[in-house]
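Researcher: Batch entry, complex prediction.
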Amino acid sequence: MPALTGQLVVFGFASFVAIAFALLMVVQKTPVRSVLSLVVTFFGLSVLAILLAAPFIAALQIFVYAGAILVLFLFVIMLLNLKEEAADKDDRPVQRTLGLLVALGLGGLLAGATLRAPVPPRGSPVGGPIPMPDEIPALGRLLFSNYLLAFEVLSLLLLVAAVGALLLSKRRFE
Amino acid sequence: MTGVLPGVAPMAVPAGAFLVVATLLFAIGLAGALLKRNALSIFLSIELMMNAVNLLFLTYARMRGDLAGQMIVFFVIAVAAAEAAVGLAIFVALFRAHRTVDVDKIALLKW
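Model: Structure tokens for the complex:
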């Protein structure tokens, strides 16, 4: 089964890249480098989304996350002229170790819980290759039938967020 | 409109592997959010955590053959965009007022 092993290789590479650059993002001291590492992580995540038969979400991930949100981050970092994070001269080892412990503990707990959670299969996920062109119309129909109200509320939310961001970043309130 | 994926091939990669990757990414994001002091870096870590949860949603959508999971990811991404715009605007305003985005130095509401 060459196709299946190919998917395994792609999965291994993409998840390795995603996790490695996520770690790099946390370790980096400069915010700009953190953002750029996160961009690579998002590309890996979008490859994983394609493996999960979600090409629309994969494209959205790159357009919205890597393309819009992280560029916004870069603009703000340049605007604020942030240099390196203030060096660890007043380092707080207790806080640091506690934070690491909490992250590791919760990570392990969640891994155990997700691996043990039963997921009853629904529908019939069998047979045939992945029908890429059929799936996006199905998503669109779902969006405009079952999730129509949520979609409209979302558009209102985006409008409010845009106005709010403008108002917040104005020089003075009047 | 049930939103069942039409005839998707069986998964070549075991679903548990996706779940482990998503959980690892979430833990890394949590570590970043707890350990960083720069508000922007904390915000970035939170974005990473959201993406880990998105991956989890996509995995479950694939396991169940149900498009509802992908729909939720769509909404999460859109809300994340709104959140990023407002959050970054708050950081800009904060920087104007205090000349710093170090969360240790910004303790207006703390005590």
